[in-house]
Amino acid sequence: MNNPADTTPPRRAIDIVNASLKRRYARERRFRWLGATAVTLGMVFVVLLFADIILKGYTAFQQTYIQLPIELAAATIDPDGARDPATLARADYMKLIREALREQFPEVKDRRDRRLLNSMISVGAPDLLRERVMADPALIGTTQELWILADDDIDMLVKGYIDRNAPASDRRVGDQMIAWVDRLEAEGRVAKRFNTIFFTHGTSREPELAGIAGALMGSFYTLVLTFLLSFPIGVGAALYLEEFAPKNRWTDLIEVNVNNLAAVPSIVFGLLGLAVFIGFFGVPRSTPLVAALVMTLMTLPTIIIASRVALKSVPPSIREAALGVGASPLQTQFHHVLPLALPGILTGSIIGMARALGETAPLLMIGMIAFIVDIPKGFNDAATVLPVQIFLWADSPERGFVERTSAAILVLLAFLFVMNLAAVLLRRRFERRW
Amino acid sequence: MSDTAIDKPAGDLTTGHTVRRYDQELAKLRAIILQMGERVVDQTQAAVAALIEDDESQAYRVLDREPLIDYLSLDADEEVFRVIARRQPTAVDLRIVLALSKIAGEVERAGDKAARIARQALELRQQESGGELLVEPLRAAFQRLDDKACCMFERSVHAVTSFDVTQALTIFENESKLHEAARALRDLLSESDTDGLVPRQTIALFHCAQALKHIGNHASSIAEQVIYVALGQDVRYRNREILIETLRHHGY
Amino acid sequence: MNTLVETMDKTTGAISSADLAQDRPSAATVGDVTVADPRMTCRNVDVWYGAKQAIKGVSLDIGKNEVLSMIGPSGCGKSTFLRCLNRMNDTIDGCRVTGSIKLDEQDIYDKGLDPVPLRAQVGMVFQKPNPFPKSIYENVAYGPRIHGLTNNKAELDELVETSLQKAGLWNEVKDRLDQPGTGLSGGQQQRLCIARTIAVSPEVILMDEPCSALDPIATAIIEELIDELRANYSIAIVTHSMQQAARVSQRTAYFHLGDLIEVGETNQIFTNPQHRLTEDYITGRFG
């Protein structure tokens, strides 16, 4: 009884718990803080990336035009006055523009200066003028104040990308040209207008004439075909493997292989496409068709895996219910299981599609890197796709392509955003069927 | 085959529930009845002693203690009610609860009989005609009937402790002896008008003899309930001899 | 007196327990497994899951217009046995059934027999209410539609209505047939599942713990419904609630570790079971 230890009351569990409480909370706080930091860091990088792309790219949606009073002389355009489209098309519109430009700068006499003056106008400007005239032949014989597409150097100068203080030798635009542009600007004859060319034209060597319409259509055709091929095949394969196939060594082997295929580098699929589709089956190269075939191979594992997970997550009670009222296994799947798994399957498929949309490497293998100016009109036309176009532009030396690269990235991101939105909407629509 | 069937002690039918509280509740119910049974035996013996030895205070004590048995029977009823409501007994449990409820009634009525004997003893005293009340053969006959009845009752209560068919069987076998002793006593009473008993006293003694015999019959009823619990067969209103034979045949 | 002797014979055996507990052949079921008017007859049914035997030589009849309840501790094989009766076990890999199970003299494990129409004849109600995620109407109409039981929309409407009426759900849902079946309460969902089952006019209805997910009121409604359905169907019900078995069934079968230990009138099983294991189980001494 004299032992002091006997007199102290036994330690209650709650005291021990309280003692450790502070440490536990500290650990929890640390973990939360770490998580918040990670998320913030991620957000910062995303914001930086977007800010960079947008800042670089937004100017590409505007293009510099020079307003010139152009005398659409009937003698030059349509000498015989028949308004024959062939004649109209053949006329020398460049001459008209140059004459108008010379009238603006009558003091320029020197041959070399004249050539410099002419270089302010884009080489594509006559084509645009021709389109204009051919669309409205009534203009012939009148003098119109028309906005003429400026050369990319002028465009860069107006947008402020060319440093006027740098030594003239380091600039692409000489002092004289700057003076002319300034004069035109002072007269209000220079303006930045919305860049429709970017969305309606295929690519070009000239930045001011380069558009993404070709790549966009190429991507669209490729994606549509990829979806049409890979979705039914993928879902069918998943359905068979998950619901019907006997569980044995062979199906195990197939499962392992499907999982492995999802991890195969995409360039391998490109090589496969080159060898099999182009080499063996003779599918024309650089077409959306061959691209879609390769993309199908690449997205199939993703779709199969996602679909199997979605099928697995359908409660077995639904299958039992259907079988219990006497539905055949196939009816059970198509009437009950598949509709319930569809949101998950769609999500997986759209993820696969999004990956296919952003894929470059395998397409380089099958010739999608070719320089194709024309906008593809079908699955069998030579085409390129958005990421490859971005890759090509990023590789070009002209300053004008820098902003166009960023703009194309913006368009690609918008495309992806629309796809994801579609995925969300589809999901919601199918899930609303309880 | 699970080992449960082999290992389970074949002894007590009220134990072994997964819910141990259930065991306790059944045990409590049975304890109440055993306590009642013991009291009834004590009461009977005391009442008969009061009658034979003409002990007024003893008779009063019996009457005083009688309500205790009634209270216990109320307790037993309440316990039965509670077990049925809370445990929904089935099979052997249901039989146990129902049988114990009935046994409680039998025991309580046996207690009433003891009190009646004590009351008759007092009645006898009021009619006292002087001299010793009970002559020797009568006294011995009462003693014998009392022994038989108490012995049967005690055994029946004991049979309840383990729902023992063998013990219940011996009670059935003792029935004839009880009836014999009762008849002998009645015969004696009907011819003993010589002993100076007034008719009222004779009637009182008849009542006592009848009460003792009834106590024995209650013991038989309890034994019937014991067999009902143990074998799941209601053996009331059956031919006793054939019943005894059948049970014997099966080794009890 | 004869009955007394007979029952006592068994009882003595059961209580002294030595002879029956040891080496009881697995097929020796206490009580009469047959009924006078059987709808389904099972003889010496063994069920294997891979190498594990889940059911050991069970013989049991299901009579016309009777409710047969199957009770027993978890894992005793009662659900497995129930699922054999409409070949629901076919969907489980490695499940093997031997012995004979006959529905009106037709062996349902016959090689040529298609389980799909069988399941229309032997309907099933599951533990968890599992209505299809479709409208109430569609839930009931689905079975008749895939089996082509009706010729036109009017007939189908009528069948849906009568099925829902039989399941005691019509008055509660008649104004919202187009609403999702999953929006109903648990008890209503289970009755919807019963309506769905009876819409394909089965002969036997199997119920696998149909009330285990329901509250007592809903349970009472289902039990009342089961009693009404007995007039037209044979019903086999697996339940964990002994009280429920006692309330709804005419015959009760007690399973223990894959053996059918005892079969008998429900009244007898719950007042005076013959086998020690049955008694221990229903009085709550194990399991």
What order do the helices and strands come in, and which of them pair?
The complex is a heterotrimer of chains A (434), B (252) and C (287).
Chain A: H1 4-7, H2 13-57, E1 62-71, H3 74-77, H4 85-90, H5 93-104, H6 111-118, H7 125-135, E2 143-149, H8 152-158, H9 175-186, E3 190-194, H10 197-200, H11 213-244, H12 249-261, H13 266-280, H14 288-312, H15 316-324, H16 329-357, H17 361-365, H18 386-394, H19 399-431
Helix pairs in contact in A: 2-19, 11-14, 11-16, 11-18, 12-14, 13-14, 14-16, 15-16, 16-19, 18-19
Chain B: H1 4-7, H2 20-53, H3 56-87, H4 91-126, H5 136-162, H6 165-191, H7 199-231, H8 240-249
Chain C: H1 2-16, H2 18-21, E1 38-49, E2 52-63, E3 67-71, H3 78-84, E4 95-103, E5 106-107, H4 115-121, E6 122-125, H5 136-147, H6 153-166, H7 170-173, H8 186-198, E7 204-208, H9 216-229, E8 234-238, H10 242-248, E9 251-256, E10 259-265, H11 266-271, H12 276-282
Parallel strand pairs in C: 3-8, 3-9, 6-7, 7-8
Antiparallel strand pairs in C: 1-2, 1-4, 4-5, 9-10
Helix pairs in contact in C: 5-6, 5-8, 6-8, 8-9
Domain ABC transporter (chain C): 40-282
Pfam families (chain C): ABC_tran
Protein name (chain C): Phosphate ABC transporter ATP-binding protein
Describe this structure in words.
The complex is a heterotrimer of chains A (434), B (252) and C (287). Chain A is mainly alpha-helical and 434 residues long. Chain A has helices spanning 4-7, 13-57, 74-77, 85-90, 93-104, 111-118, 125-135, 152-158, 175-186, 197-200, 213-244, 249-261, 266-280, 288-312, 316-324, 329-357, 361-365, 386-394, 399-431, and strands at 62-71, 143-149, 190-194. Chain A has a three-stranded antiparallel β-sheet with strand order 2-1-3. Chain A is extended and about 110 Å long. Chain A starts with a helix and ends with a helix. The mean pLDDT of chain A is 87. Chain B has 252 residues and is mainly alpha-helical. Chain C has 287 residues and is an alpha/beta fold. Chain C has a six-stranded mixed β-sheet with strand order 6-7-8-3-9-10, sandwiched between helices. In chain C, strands 2-1-4-5 form a four-stranded antiparallel β-sheet, with helices on one face. In chain C, α5 crosses α6 (153-166) and α6 packs across α8. Chains in contact: A-C, B-C. The interface between B and C is medium-sized, with 30 and 39 residues.
